[in-house]
Amino acid sequence: MKSLYLLLLGLILSLTATADPALITTTLKGHITDASDGEPLVGVIVSIPELQESTTTDADGNYVFDALPQRTVSVQASYLGHQTQVKKIDLKKTTQLDFVMKEQNAMLGEVVVTGLTGKSLMKDSPTPISLVNADMLRTTPSTNIIDALSHQPGVSQVTTGGGISKPVIRGLGFNRLVVVNDGIRQEGNQWGAEHGVEIDAQGISSAEIIKGPASLMYGSDALAGVIIFHGDPVMAHNTIGGEASTEYQSNTGLINYSLNFRGNQNGWVWNGRWTDKRAHDYHNRADNYVVGSRFREQDAEAMAGYNGGWGYSHLTASIYHLTPGIAEGARDDDSKSYSKTLPFQQIHHYKVVSDNAYYIGNSTLHAIVGYQQNRRQEYEESAEQPGLDMMLHTLNYDIRYILPEKSGWKATIGANGMWQRNMNKGSEYLIPGYQLFDLGTFATASFKRDAWTWSGGLRLDHRHVHAFALDDDFDPLSRDFTSLSGSIGAVYHVADNMTLRLNAAKGFRAPGISELSANGVHEGTQQYVIGNGQLKAEQSWQVDAGWDFTSRWVTAQLSLFANYIDNYIFTARQGDQQREDLPLYQYTQGNARLLGGEAMIDFHPVERLHWQNSFSYVNSVLRHQPRASRYLPFTPAPRWNGELRYTLIRDGKTLDHTFVAANMECNLRQNHYYMLGGTETATPSYTLFGLAAGTDFRHGGKRLAALSLTATNLFDRIYQNHLSRLKYIGGVNPDNGRTGLFDMGRNITAKLTLYL
């Protein structure tokens, strides 16, 4: 294993050392105008995703890229209120590329996303992908990055107050979903419901949500799909910029500010960001203030590197520190303090990533090595000495060779995986110390001809995990898991305005350490949980089908899926047995079936008016089980989201992209729940309404600032989301007879961003 790491490091260093920054480069220029009046557009974002290069148009609608490698690339032009355009060019032959931007109607635009064989168009993906851009993130009120994505079709969140959210895609979450940030998979005790995702929301410029098994690209744990976060884009040559943002939320008194400064001087690039966020306990009409829901978050990130004609090399380091309270059911009339009080957690996450690409003609050799350290501590009786104290070390590696496109064919070969070591440093234990090594090799290919695009691949994974003995609580355990994954899919463009998709995939997931070796009280679920060292790996078989239609007045999308998971791992209550005065649960296995999908439609009767609707549904069952244990826990309720948005000002001289919107979220009653031992209960339906408004401020063709105002839960509705952990905490409220803690009441959010 040590030899492998030395080989990877030597490869990266040799590529960087032999690369010649003086290689032949070229310049790309262009002019961008509005199709409606021919006027130049200011502030259009022009990017080359394969090269990690980005710039914006000036006051005359011009843009320029310097020192580009002479290879075939895709150039993407994006402008709010207009259709995104993508053009593929050969930089050996093309130095001038103009765009004429059409105003956005219901037509679906082209967007470059992460595909099986590198960067590809989203419309050519056989699996459903949602893209959340920077403007959507900026105008969506949220307390963390997963909360910001949870309104996307097919995406939900398991919440513990405002500070902790875990993503759920189509009814699957926890270790069945991979989160990628800075190019590597985020690792930080994601098996627990009370563990969030350690990512600074302010440093994210866009997110891709891949729905369905993605084991082919990311190995074990990607049965549900993948969420890929992209950081701040690299500045254009010889430019500097940055931003300062602040945010306030009325319900929790949340105060958030973030400072960013980045630049590019002759190919030497840098980026730095600092974020500070704090909130007191949230409030609702049923519980008043929910004691223990306050949190404090501090983040810092720095990147330095070089972009040249030979490729790029970036080194990123980040620190994430979250101090969330622990809600135990107490309620208060006035709980507005930001100070931490017992009990509380401390979560530290440190990460260093080296991201490197070397251009060989029109092919690319991409190598990433990353180190992460996650430390989770729980303070219950003393603010000085934690009871639970776990430290997780992870070393990630990823090497892939992207072959040049030829006659419609694209292909990629590679290997990736990780090494992990977990240590217990406290007096309480949930899981044993363990060591893990994971390696996967893969080959993917796509072929495009006429109206058809085919894509697929194969992957072989091997994982070894060894748990160490600890006192009388944990016995030593060693297990090996090997599995073959694959997928094949096709996209058929029936016409310019209609597309059909079909994909079949096999994924796998090796049991996690908690499932194999847990032995202790799980505070997040109020259960005593024991593992099962004989568990088999989960095997998933999923079929996805999709239909896209677009016209001048309407666009519609339908995505359906059927997912069968053999050896599905879950906890089962062991009758009336108890340990430490808590019900005893043990991990076991069965066969699961998940059916469902998402439907989306956008009516567009006039240019500036959009009425967008989406409906998400998933039915998750354990096959051959009685009613009490038939439905899988943490299955989101059917949900209908709607928004009516009108753009008041577009392409204005002082105000720009000014809009108003009204939105609605309707969660239907969830009667399909895991009722064994009272694990879950039915959840009534509820509907929430909100308002939003926003605008950009411009001067001399330059974007100076952006302001957004939003109101969520406008009518202060009392409700509980089916995936809220606090729904089962707090018992019966003696003041009103309601059971459990309720979600956040009315919340007004104001965000202001200043651009340097």
From TrEMBL:
Q: Main subcellular localization, coarse class?
A: membrane
- Topological type in the membrane: Multi-pass membrane protein
Subcellular location(s): the record lists: Cell outer membrane
* PANTHER family in alphabetical order: HEMOGLOBIN AND HEMOGLOBIN-HAPTOGLOBIN-BINDING PROTEIN 1-RELATED, TONB-DEPENDENT OUTER MEMBRANE RECEPTOR
State the name under which the record lists this protein: TonB-dependent receptor
Q: Where is the signal peptide?
A: 1-19
Q: Which family does it belong to?
A: Belongs to the TonB-dependent receptor family.
According to the entry, every stretch annotated as the TonB-dependent receptor-like beta-barrel domain falls at: 246-714
